Amino acid sequence: MKFAVRIIKNQFHPLKVPPNANLKQGQYVLVKTDKGEEVFTVFLVNSEIQKIWEKHQPEPFSVIRIMTPEDMETYEEQKKLEISAFYKCRDLAQKRNLVMKFTQARYTFDRKKITFYYTAPERVDFRELLKDLTQEFKRVRIDLRHIGVRDETSILQGQGVCGQDYCCCRFLKKFEQVNTKLAKDQGIPIAPGKITGACGRLLCCLNYEYKTYIDAAKTLPPVGSGVMTPDGIGKVFMVNFLKKSVNVKLEDGKIKEYNKSEIEMIDGEVDIDINIDNNLNYQEDEVVDIKSLNDDKNSTTGNI
């Protein structure tokens, strides 16, 4: 049997297990990583993943030992120290008037290193803060790590509007670029509360079905095109990709829905006014800052 551990950002690493170790699913183990000694939960690797790892195996981590009851007491105490260190670092940054939003503090198990994760709208000169932290945490190596808002959400975890754990907490390893065009092309209302996640950026899942919508759009007339319907000439007002139908505004002002088999595209202009902006479904009385929803340089850094 092969075992692995999952570190931040859903990266799984196989374990080098000592011959005398009797590992079991769900156990806590102390392993050696590039950051030092860290505690993780053991996962049993299934046969399909083992086949993949035969060709592309991630860097394995060495198991130092299975956590003992005494180790677990130390680990629980460490968690309390991390909370205390988090607030101390935040207070010191505020005294320096630094625009930094701290996400989490993490000690290595041997307490030789502490990492502070933070987000910031711009580059921060934290040299003076680092001096303060050095005085506060003696004989400890300090790492101030700038991360993006999407990275922050993957660390803090939570549940999305779908009721599932955030994708970035379950399986996403790499964030794909997301922009409002994805929502518009899928006919999703441009309302921040409906299309953004806890990170304040557009939902990652807007990417998942985008190709399906684009393929469907190729078989349907675009919004604004003239069509002949069983009820006469009209202009496409809205496209329903999944139903493979369109809503058409007729010459008498009525809007009806037709399957693609019921309509034919016609050449030339059709003198029927439609408000295409209504198709975007902006939330009434809500100012939508489109630019703020799109990914930018602070959305994700990969610096975890």
Map the helices and strands.
Blueprint: E1 3-7, E2 11-16, E3 28-33, E4 36-44, H1 47-55, E5 61-66, H2 69-95, E6 101-107, E7 113-119, H3 127-136, E8 141-146, H4 149-156, H5 167-170, H6 180-185, H7 192-195, H8 210-217, E9 226-229, E10 232-240, E11 245-250, E12 255-259, E13 264-265, H9 290-293
Parallel strand pairs: 2-5, 7-8
Antiparallel strand pairs: 1-2, 1-4, 3-4, 3-5, 6-7, 9-10, 9-13, 10-11, 11-12
Can you put this structure into words, describing what you see?
- It is a single chain.
- A hairpin with a 4-residue loop joins strand 11 (245-250) and strand 12.
- The radius of gyration is 27 Å and the shape is elongated.
- It contains nine helices and 13 strands.
- The model has no long low-confidence stretch (mean pLDDT 88).
- It has helices spanning 47-55, 69-95, 127-136, 149-156, 167-170, 180-185, 192-195, 210-217, 290-293; strands at 3-7, 11-16, 28-33, 36-44, 61-66, 101-107, 113-119, 141-146, 226-229, 232-240, 245-250, 255-259, 264-265.
- The chain has 304 residues and is of the alpha+beta class.
- It folds into four domains: 3-67, no CATH class; 72-146, GMP Synthetase, Chain A, domain 3, CATH 3.30.300; 161-216 and 277-304, no CATH class; 224-273, SH3 type barrels (Roll), CATH 2.30.30.
- The chain starts with a strand and ends in an 11-residue tail after the last helix.
- The strands form three sheets. It has a five-stranded mixed barrel with strand order 1-2-5-3-4. Strands 12-11-10-9-13 form a five-stranded antiparallel β-sheet, with no helix packed on it. Strands 6-7-8 form a three-stranded mixed β-sheet, with helices on both faces.
